[in-house]
C-alpha cells in the first residue's frame, strides 16, 4: 500500500497566504505544518511509500524531504481533484508503481485512529473504494464537506450539493489498484473537471464503495482563515487523543490518560524538553515512596502517591512520542521499574496484612494469594510484550476481569484505604492469571502446536445465512444462568457465615481457611453468571428492538437509551451482592460495608429515577392517547 497526498489545489479562500506556497505548509505549531503532521500519521500506521502530488511551482517545497516523493501534475484553478489523482497515478505507472492507495487531502488534519480504522477494514478486503464517514456533522462542515448517503454497509450516493442524509467524508480514502480503470473511465467522461465524488458515484452504481464509521473521532478541513484558527486549537486535542494506546487498560483510557496527556502536552507546548528517562525515574521514585509509606503504616498517604504514580506513569512514553525520542532502552527501563514498583507495593500491602492477621492458617492463605498476585502481575507484562497478535492483545487488555497495571494500582489503592488487602490480592491473582492463561491458549490456537505431532481439526466455515438469535433461545439461556446465580447467592451466605463462625474458634481456624476458599470461588462464579445474564439481556433487547419500536412508536435512539439505563440499573443491583460478599470475606469494617451498600443503593435509585423519567417521556404519546380515549367515553 502506498499513500498519495493531493497538494495541487490553489486555496483561493486563503489568499494571500497561498499565493507563494501550498496551504498544506501552513503551520499548526511552530515548525510543524499540516503536511508534516499528515506524513507523521501515515508513518505511524506503517505506510512507507508516501507521494505528494503538487504543481510544478510548488515542487521545491517538497523535493528536499527524504520521507516523501514528489509527483508533478498539471492542474488549473477549476480542475477537479480526481484529475489530480489521475495524473499522479499515470506518473507512478511510468515508474512501474501500481499498488493500493491510501489517499488523503493535504488540507485535512485528523486523529491517527481514523487512518488506522480505514487501513484495518481495507486490508485484505475485496476490490473496493472505502471512505471515512462522520455521521456527527458539525455546523459548516455539513455545507462544505462531501455529503454521503449509505444503505446498509454500502455507499449509494455522494455529492457537495445533496443533503447530508448519512454524514460527510473526512478527506481520507482507500482505493484498490483494481479500480484504476474506473478512474480512467470517469476522467475520460468528465475530463479535467472530474472529482472524487464522480468516482464514488460511478463505483456506487456497481456496489464497490464501502465506508468506515469514524463518528466521534476528531478531524478538521482547512479552507478559510477561520479554519486555520480552529485547526490550531483542535490540533492539541488530536495530539492528546493520538497518545492513547489501543492496549491501554480501562482506568488508563478513561482516567489516567486524560490527566497525563494534559501534563505531557503542557510540557511539549512550553518547549521545555524533559528527557523521558528522567521522568521514568521520577515516577519510579514516587511509586517507591508510596510503598515505603504503606509499609510504615501511613496507608492513606501511600495510596494517594500510588495513584499519582499510576497517573504519571504514561508521561514518559507520551513525551517520547511527542518529541520523536522513543528508544528501546527507554521502553525497557520503564517496564523494569514498573515491575519493581508493583512488587514493592504488593509487598508493603502484604506486610500490613500480616500485622493485622497473625494466625498461621490465615497467614498461609494470604501468602499463597500474595504469591499468585505478584507473579501474575509480572506475567501480564511479559505476555503483553511476547504476544504477537496485537489486535487480540488490545481486546484482552480491555476485557473483564481487567488485569492491566492501571487497574491493579487502582484496586491496590482502594484496598489500602479500606485495609481490605486480601480482596486486592484475590482480584489481582484471578485477573492476571486469567489474562495469562487466555493469552497462552490464544497463542496455542494460532500455531503453538505446530511443533507437536497432534492433528488439529481445521476451523469450520461460518454458517450462512446467520439469522438473528431467537428471543426464546435467549430467554432459555438467561434462565439457565439466572437459576444457578440465585442458588449461589444462597450458598455464599452459608459459606460466609461458616467462615465468620470458625474464625472465632482458634482450634478450628483451618476450617475457616477452607470456607474462605469456598466463598472466594462462589463469589467469582457469581460475577461470571451475572455477567452472562447481562450479556444475554442485552442481546434480547437487541432482538426485540424492531417489534418494540413498531408497537410503541419510539425512535431507535430513544429505545437504545432506555435499554442502556435498564441494563445499567440491573448491573448495579447485581454488583451489590458480590461487592457485599467480597467486603465480608475481606473483613472490611461493618461501618465501611454499610457505607458501600448505601452508595450502591443511592446510585441505583438515581438511575431508576432517570429511567422512570425516560420511560414516561417515551410513552407520553400513548398515555395522552389513553387519556383522550377515556375522556371521549366520559
TrEMBL record:
Domain MobA-like NTP transferase, first and last residues per copy: 3-125
Annotated catalysed reactions: CDP-1L-myo-inositol + 1D-myo-inositol 3-phosphate = bis(1L-myo-inositol) 3,1'-phosphate 1-phosphate + CMP + H(+); 1D-myo-inositol 3-phosphate + CTP + H(+) = CDP-1L-myo-inositol + diphosphate
Enzyme class: transferase
Entry's transmembrane regions: 278-298, 343-360, 367-387, 407-436, 470-492, 512-534, 566-583, 595-616
PROSITE patterns with a match to the protein in the record: CDP_ALCOHOL_P_TRANSF (PS00379)
Superkingdom of the source species: Archaea
One GO cellular component term noted in the UniProt record for this chain: membrane
Gene Ontology terms: biological process: phospholipid biosynthetic process
InterPro entries: CDP-OH_P_trans (IPR000462), CDP-OH_PTrfase_TM_dom (IPR043130), CDP_ALCOHOL_P_TRANSF_CS (IPR048254), GlmU-like (IPR050065), MobA-like_NTP_Trfase (IPR025877), Nucleotide-diphossugar_trans (IPR029044)
Keyword line: Membrane, Nucleotidyltransferase, Transferase, Transmembrane, Transmembrane helix
A Pfam family the protein falls into: NTP_transf_3
Signal peptide from the UniProt entry: none
One Gene Ontology term of the molecular function aspect: nucleotidyltransferase activity
Annotated EC: 2.7.7.74, 2.7.8.34
Family that this chain belongs to: Belongs to the CDP-alcohol phosphatidyltransferase class-I family. In the N-terminal section; belongs to the MobA family.
PANTHER family: N-ACETYLMURAMATE ALPHA-1-PHOSPHATE URIDYLYLTRANSFERASE, NUCLEOTIDYL TRANSFERASE
UniProt name for this protein: Bifunctional IPC transferase and DIPP synthase
Species in which this protein is naturally found: Ignisphaera aggregans
Amino acid at each position: 500500500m502506498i499513500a498519495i497526498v493531493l497538494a495541487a489545489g490553489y486555496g483561493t479562500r486563503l489568499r494571500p497566504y497561498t499565493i507563494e506556497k501550498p496551504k498544506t505548509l501552513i503551520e499548526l505549531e511552530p515548525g510543524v505544518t499540516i503536511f508534516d503532521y499528515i506524513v507523521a500519521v501515515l508513518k505511524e500506521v506503517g505506510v512507507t511509500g508516501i507521494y505528494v502530488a503538487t504543481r510544478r511551482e510548488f515542487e521545491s517545497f517538497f523535493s528536499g524531504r527524504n520521507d516523501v516523493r514528489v509527483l508533478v501534475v498539471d492542474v488549473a484553478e477549476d480542475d477537479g481533484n480526481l484529475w489530480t489523482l489521475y495524473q499522479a497515478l499515470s506518473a507512478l505507472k511510468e515508474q512501474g508503481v501500481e499498488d493500493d492507495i491510501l489517499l488523503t487531502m493535504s488540507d485535512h488534519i485528523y486523529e491517527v485512529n481514523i487512518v488506522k480504522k480505514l487501513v484495518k477494514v481495507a486490508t485484505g478486503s475485496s476490490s473496493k473504494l472505502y471512505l471515512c464517514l462522520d455521521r456527527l456533522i458539525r455546523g459548516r462542515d455539513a455545507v462544505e464537506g462531501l455529503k454521503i448517503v449509505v444503505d446498509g454497509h454500502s455507499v449509494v450516493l455522494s455529492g457537495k450539493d445533496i443533503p447530508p442524509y448519512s454524514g460527510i467524508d473526512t478527506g481520507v480514502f482507500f482505493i484498490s489498484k483494481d479500480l484504476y480503470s474506473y478512474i480512467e473511465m470517469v476522467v475520460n467522461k468528465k475530463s479535467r473537471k472530474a472529482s472524487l465524488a464522480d468516482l464514488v458515484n460511478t463505483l456506487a452504481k456497481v456496489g464497490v464503495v464501502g465506508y468506515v464509521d469514524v463518528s466521534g473521532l476528531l478531524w478538521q478541513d482547512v479552507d478559510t482563515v477561520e479554519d486555520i484558527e480552529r485547526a490550531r486549537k483542535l490540533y492539541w486535542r488530536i495530539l492528546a487523543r493520538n497518545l492513547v494506546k489501543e492496549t491501554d487498560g480501562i482506568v488508563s483510557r478513561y482516567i489516567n490518560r486524560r490527566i497525563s496527556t494534559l501534563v505531557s502536552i503542557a510540557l511539549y507546548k512550553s518547549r521545555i524538553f524533559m528527557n523521558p528517562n528522567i521522568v521514568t525515574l521520577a515516577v519510579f521514585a514516587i511509586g517507591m515512596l508510596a510503598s515505603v509509606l504503606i509499609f510504615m503504616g501511613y496507608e492513606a498517604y501511600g495510596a494517594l502517591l500510588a495513584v499519582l504514580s499510576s497517573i504519571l506513569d504514561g508521561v514518559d512514553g507520551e513525551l517520547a512520542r511527542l518529541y520523536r525520542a522513543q528508544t528501546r532502552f527507554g521502553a525497557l527501563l520503564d517496564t523494569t521499574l514498573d515491575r519493581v514498583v508493583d512488587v514493592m507495593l504488593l509487598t508493603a500491602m502484604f506486610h500490613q496484612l500480616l500485622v493485622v492477621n497473625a494466625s498461621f492458617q490465615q497467614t498461609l492463605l494470604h501468602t499463597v494469594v500474595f504469591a499468585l498476585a505478584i507473579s501474575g502481575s509480572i506475567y501480564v507484562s511479559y505476555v503483553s510484550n511476547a504476544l504477537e497478535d496485537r489486535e487480540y492483545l488490545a481486546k484482552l487488555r480491555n476485557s473483564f476481569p481487567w488485569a492491566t497495571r492501571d487497574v491493579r494500582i487502582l484496586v491496590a489503592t482502594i484496598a489500602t484505604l479500606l485495609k481490605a488487602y486480601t480482596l486486592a490480592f484475590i482480584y489481582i491473582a484471578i485477573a492476571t492469571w486469567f489474562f495469562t492463561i487466555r493469552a497462552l491458549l490464544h497463542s496455542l490456537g494460532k500455531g503453538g502446536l505446530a511443533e507437536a505431532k497432534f492433528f488439529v481439526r481445521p476451523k469450520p466455515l461460518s454458517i450462512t445465512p446467520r439469522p438473528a438469535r431467537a428471543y426464546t433461545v435467549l430467554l432459555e439461556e438467561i434462565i439457565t444462568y439466572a437459576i444457578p446465580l440465585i442458588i449461589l447467592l444462597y450458598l455464599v451466605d452459608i459459606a460466609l457465615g461458616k467462615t465468620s463462625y470458625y474464625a472465632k474458634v482458634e482450634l478450628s481456624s483451618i476450617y475457616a481457611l477452607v470456607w474462605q476458599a469456598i466463598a472466594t470461588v462462589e463469589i467469582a462464579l457469581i460475577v461470571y453468571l451475572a455477567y452472562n445474564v447481562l450479556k444475554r439481556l442485552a442481546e434480547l433487547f437487541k432482538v426485540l428492538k424492531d417489534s418494540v419500536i413498531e408497537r410503541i412508536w419510539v425512535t431507535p435512539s430513544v429505545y437504545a437509551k432506555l435499554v442502556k439505563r435498564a441494563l445499567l440499573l440491573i448491573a448495579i443491583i447485581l454488583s451489590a451482592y458480590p461487592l457485599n460478599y467480597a467486603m465480608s470475606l475481606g473483613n472490611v469494617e461493618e461501618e465501611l460495608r454499610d457505607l458501600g451498600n448505601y452508595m450502591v443503593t443511592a446510585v441505583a435509585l438515581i438511575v431508576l429515577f432517570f429511567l422512570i423519567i425516560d420511560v414516561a417521556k417515551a410513552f407520553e404519546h400513548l398515555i395522552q392517547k389513553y387519556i383522550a380515549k377515556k375522556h371521549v367515553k366520559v
